[in-house]
Write a structure and sequence with these properties.
With 267 residues, this protein is an alpha+beta fold. The protein has helices spanning 34-37, 94-108, 135-146, 180-196, 220-224, 227-240; strands spanning 11-13, 81-89, 115-117, 121-123, 128-131, 152-163, 169-178, 209-216, 247-250, 252-257, 260-265.
Length: 267
C-alpha cells in the first residue's frame, strides 16, 4: 500500500518542536574501558562541565497550541533547555497502515478526529529537560550503560487507550506481548542514568507500547468503547499480514535531544 493510502486518511503529526526535524549526529556504542569502571559514578555530577555561554534577559516564548495542532507543551520552552527522550524506533508497514485506516473509520463514527504519528516508537524514558552543556556527559553515560545489552525481540499483542498526565491528549497504542522483561531492564538502566543528572525516571510498572494515533483532549471513554471491536479487527489483520509487520527486532536504542539524534547499538 502506498503512503497515499491509509495514512492519507489521517492528518500527519510532527515532533513537539520544529527543531526535531533537523538531523543530528550519531554515535556508536563501544565497550567500557577498565578506567571507566574505576571511576565512581557519584562523582559524575561534580565533573559536569559548566555552561560555555551566558544568556541575558532571555525572551519568553509564548506557547500557541494552534501552531502545533492543538497540542499543549508539558513544560515551557526556554533557551538552553533541550527536550530529551530515549526510545526504540518502529518502522511503518502495510499491516500498520491498514490498522490505522480501520481505526480512523471507527473513530469517525464517534465524531473523533484522530491524527496519525509519523514517528513510531516505544518510549523508554519520559521527555525530560536536559541542559545544553550536559548533553555530551549524558550521551557518554548512556553509551557506557547501554552497550552491555544484547539484542532482543518485541512482539505486539493488542490495542490499548492511553492519556497523558495533563489529560490534554488521548492515544491509541499498540501494546507489546513479548519482550517486557528486556524492556524493563533497559528502563531500569536508563533510570539510573537519569538519576545521575537528577532527571525524572520513567513510570512505575510501565505499559510498553507504540502510540499510533492521537486526538486532543481526554477521550478515553469514547475510544475504550471501540476497543473490543478494534482488537478483533487487529487479530484478523495479524493473520492476513506477515509476522514481520507485528514485531521489532531491537538492534539499537535512539536518543533525541533537541535537534540532535544519537544511536546506540546493542551487542
Amino acid at each position: 500500500m502506498s503512503n497515499k493510502g491509509a495514512l492519507a486518511l489521517l492528518a500527519q503529526y510532527g515532533g513537539d518542536s520544529s527543531d526535531d526535524e533537523v538531523p543530528g549526529s550519531r554515535v556508536s556504542t563501544k565497550r567500557m574501558h577498565k578506567d571507566d569502571e574505576d571511576d565512581p559514578r557519584s562523582k559524575r555530577l561534580e565533573r559536569l562541565p559548566p555552561p560555555n555561554f551566558t544568556i541575558s534577559n532571555p525572551e519568553e516564548v509564548i506557547d500557541d497550541p494552534s501552531s502545533h495542532e492543538g497540542r499543549i507543551r508539558s513544560f515551557p520552552h526556554e533557551r538552553g533547555n533541550w527536550a530529551t527522550y530515549v526510545y526504540i524506533p518502529y518502522e511503518c508497514n502495510e499491516g500498520l497502515e491498514k490498522l490505522l485506516s480501520m481505526i480512523n473509520s471507527s473513530a469517525t463514527s464517534q465524531n473523533l478526529h484522530l491524527k496519525c504519528f509519523d514517528d513510531f516508537h516505544i518510549s523508554l524514558t519520559k521527555t525530560v529537560i536536559l541542559k545544553h552543556h550536559w548533553i555530551d556527559s549524558f550521551i557518554d553515560t548512556l553509551k557506557e550503560n547501554i552497550s552491555y545489552f544484547n539484542r532482543f525481540m518485541v512482539m505486539f499483542d493488542c490495542l490499548e487507550i492511553y492519556c497523558n498526565e495533563e489529560k490534554t491528549r488521548t492515544f491509541i497504542g499498540l501494546q507489546i506481548k513479548t519482550g517486557y522483561d528486556s524492556l524493563l531492564k533497559l528502563v531500569q538502566c536508563l533510570d539510573n542514568c537519569l538519576g545521575e543528572f537528577k532527571l525524572p525516571k520513567f513510570y512505575e510498572n510501565p505499559s510498553f507500547h507504540v502510540s499510533i494515533a492521537w486526538c486532543v483532549g481526554d477521550h478515553q471513554e469514547q475510544l475504550k468503547s471501540l476497543l473490543s471491536d478494534l482488537n478483533r479487527e487487529l487479530e484478523v489483520l495479524m493473520g492476513e499480514y506477515s509476522q514481520e509487520n507485528w514485531y521489532i527486532y531491537v538492534e539499537q536504542i535512539m536518543c533525541r535531544t533537541g535537534n540532535k539524534l544519537f544511536e546506540f547499538h546493542l551487542r
